[in-house]
Amino acid sequence: MNQATNHLGSDCPEAGFVDGPVRDRELGRVLLRIARGAIGERLGAPAMPLPTHDALAVPGATFVTLRRDGALRGCIGSLEPRRRLGIDVHENAVGAAFRDPRFSPLRRPEFEAVVVEVSLLARSEPLRFSGEAELLAQLVPGRDGLVLEVGERRATFLPQVWEALPVPRDFIAALKQKAGLPQEFWSPALRARRYRVAKWSETDFATGEARR
User: Fold this and answer.
1) Mind listing the pLDDT tens digit for each residue in 43-57?
2) Domain 21-122+197-211 adopts which CATH fold?
3) What is the DSSP string of 30-55?
4) CA distance linking residue 104 with residue 2, whole number of Å
5) Based on C-alpha coordinates, what's the Rg of the chain?
6) pTM for the full model?
């Protein structure tokens, strides 16, 4: 997953809660439609009518992930809710398709083959630890997303990354590398925050349901 864009701080503590309405299947369908529509418009597809949902007006933090044939094709997101949810997912979809530095911009022939996934983040929780072993002991594989920060370096892994890195020590080592740090790096200045997500993929819906 790509490094998060710098949307930090929020005056809306309810934004991004996973325990509330964000479990709504209809919200997931709406967010996926917004994401696909945003990408399609940039590629010259006709604009689709914007779907509606009460949650779209509330600040929210999302990641939009694109996959093609099961492989990552782009991922961009926000760590904190600084924009309205509908705007955030729209902008992150465009970022994932055209601004992820690891990939060339998405081309029109790829558009229909790409699967869109949207993750809605809950508020992050700072972790307290005095060493790496104590940090590892607090992680819940498969559930926790994690942000590591030291100085100006920062990186995050969504909970989905546990599927590829199920061992906590490997998960942390890879996240350090993503932040540009050695795998064995340790410093008392290292900070960590964890968060949960509600995730929806176009594959969760009947064929075409999340695209209409």
Assistant:
1) 998 888 888 899 999
2) Glycoprotein, Type 4 Pilin (3.30.700)
3) HHHHHHHHHHHHHTTPPPPPPP--GG
4) 14
5) 17
6) 0.86
